[in-house]
Every structure is written in structure tokens, then in C-alpha cells.
Amino acid sequence: MIEAILTDAVELTPVTNESPFESSIDYAAELKKRDEVTRTWKTLSAEVQAEHENKIESYIQASGILDLKSPEAYRAKNLFLLRNEVAAHIKSESPFKLLSVEELHFSSSLIELLENAENAEHIRELYKLRKRTTGTTRNAGISVSEAQRLKNCMKQGRELYQSGRAGSLMVKPLNFFYALTAYAYAVVILNNPVRYVLDGLPGSHGLNYLPDQIRAQFGGDIKQGTFSDLFTSFPSSTVRDRRTTIIQDNEASILAFYKTRTSVGTGTLLSMVPEIREYYSLVTGKPSRTFPLEITTVSDPRSVKWELQIGDGETRPATADIDNAFGEFQRGERHGKTIVTIPFTEAHKIRATIYSDIRGRFWYIENPFFPIVLPELCLHFLLTNAFSNIMRYSPDHWGEILLNQVRSDISLITRKYLSAFENKFPVLLLRSLSKFHPYVSAES
Questions:
Q1: What is the pLDDT of residues 86-99, one digit of tens each?
Q2: Which contiguous run of DSSP H or E holds residue 420?
Q3: E strand or H helix at 441, and its extent?
Q4: What predicted TM-score, i.e. pTM, was given to this entire model?
């Protein structure tokens, strides 16, 4: 069983289940038709209105207008809200402040920032800041009482995380997973365009764990829950450092998520963690799926463009993966690196998996799930869930891993992952639920 931790396996299965997003109905067009019919109703004679029992809804229904209370309309509205949110992300500048955190005390500084966010009025402000469209359509956003509930989720998450840091390796995975779960509720309400209150969230983890194979299943016909809501909380991806901000449209990824059941081995997920790339290669004998990425600005007489340099000069991503991620954009090779050139105005069209380490350096990730683009916080949700399940349901095997009584490479990669997560977690959270985009710098 334990050897399965390193299994690199992905299975994508198309399904025909009911998605929370309906693309066959143009919700905006239906709203427009409804407005037109409503205006017509006001001009009708009393006799004609009486034919419809003097009820405008009866007239609207007779006119063939979509019933806004139907399940189909609800799903169409979800897609309408998602698209509006994506458009607002792309059109507006990022409102989140780049924040340099001094390297010497970065861990305590990041935890202080997390604790500082635990304020109901501040959370109400964050709701309207992070939700560009749905955050302001409900008057004051969320109520004080709902913000207070989110504060409790965040406080519990922080204390679970700190308990995990202070505790032994024997119990870290469970503390870390439930810390992430508690924080996920806040991330969802503050970012997911179709979730507004905690009482509206499904009561499951939103994924399956297969213990014999140490695999995770998610998406498609897997019961919706925290993981699927967390995934949908990233309608766009932000690639950002001191010079660069690229907003990527994730609509296609989200729609694919709910139409594809994905089964993935823990080894595959570990191969996508930049912080352990060398250890992954050492332990498995296979290359990591992570590649250094540098982004520079280039100009020509017609436009300003981003130039993405992917790879370390010796290894670079597979051509097919680059084709998936960058579609019609110009691609080439220079000094052993893949070069992709993207006009500023077209950057949102990329479909790449790009992560950023705590220092703000970019990493291109070969994507085993395309067209699904896995947000980095979701990657860690899957991994901490897997390790917490091993810890809870196979404590004998978990003890063998920690005491180095099985293959030493499995012990090594497990310890290194948990250490990497411990350092990275606060940064990922702050980038997902605060007004800051922090990175750790050696500069004071």
C-alpha cells in the first residue's frame, strides 16, 4: 500500500451529470426579454390583463420567457455570474497590494497578517473587494453576522495550523488538512461567484479518497462539496510579481471540472509541487512537472508583449503541454528554454498552470489534467487530504513512514512535502483571502 504514495497516474473520465453551470441558455438574453415583456404588460388593456388573471407572471409564462425559479435558470444564472466575475477581473487592475515580507521573521509575520484579517468589518470589506461583481449586488455585501461566522472559520483554521506546526509529524497531516478546510470556507464565500453564505455550502469534502491506491477522485459526478466549491473560487488565476500581473480566464477550466471525473495518484500531485522538485526527481528517478518561468516585457512597433521563458536550459515542458496552455500564441526555443510571446491584451486567453513560490518566483507546471487547470491551493487540499487519510486510517503504516521503516525515499518525500506545505500555506491563504499578495524577500 505505502508504495502507492509515489504512483504517478491520472484518469480523466467524461461524465454526463448535471453541472451547476448551464451553457445552453443565454441568461442575459432571457433577462432582456423579460424586461421587454414587463414593459409590454404595462401597456396592455385591463381586458387583456384579465385574460392572464391580472398576474404579470402568468403573462410572462405565456410569452415563453424562461421561469427564473426553474433549475435550468438557476444553473444559467450561475454561468452568467461566473462570466461577469471573470470579465471584471480581466478588465480591472488588481486591487491587492504587493507586500514584501522580511525573510528573517517571515513565518511569524505571515501569521500576524492572517490573525489581523480576523475582524468582521474587515471581512465585509474583503467580500466587496474580492468579489468584483457579486460582492456589490447585494447592497452591503454580507451581513455582520455572516462575517462573524467567517471570522470564526479563519480563527479555527489559524489555530489548527499553529497546532500542526507545533505538533509532531505523527499528527501534522490531520491538523493541516482541517486547517485548510476551515480556511476554505472563508476562501469560498469571499471568492466563489455563486456562493454567498456558509449555510448554502454542501456538507461534504467534495472528493473521494481511494485508500488501496492512495488516489483522489474529484469533479464530474463526484458529490459536490468543499473541494469543488474551492476550485470554483478561482474564476481567474493571477500571475504576479513586482513587474508582472497577468490575469487568466478560468471559465473553460471550471466548466470542464464539472464534466470530468478525475482520478489522480499522490505521486502525480507531488510532481507538481515546485518546492520539492529536486526531491521528487531524486526519489522517483523521473523529472518533476515543475519548470522555472521568467516573464519579461518586450516591445515592437505594433504592441507591447510578455515573453515567457520556460525551463532551466536543460529540461523544458513537453510540446503538447505547451500547445494546450498557449494555443495560438507564438512559440519557439532559445538556449534550451521554451519561449512564448503573448500580447498584453490577449494574456487572459492562456490556459496555463502557473504557480508562485513564497519568494514570488514563477513556476510553470506541466498539466496532467488539461483542460482543467488546478489552482495551487486545491493541489494542497488534495495532498493534505491524502496524507491525513493515511494517518487516520492506517496509523501503523503512517508510523512506519515517519520512523523510516519502509522505503527511505517515501519517508524523505513525505517529510519534505509536509515541511514545504508548512512554510507555503500562510502565503497561499493571504493571496486568496486578504487584500495582500505577499512574497518573502531578503530585503528589509
A1: 999 999 888 899 99
A2: helix 408-433
A3: strand 436-441
A4: 0.95
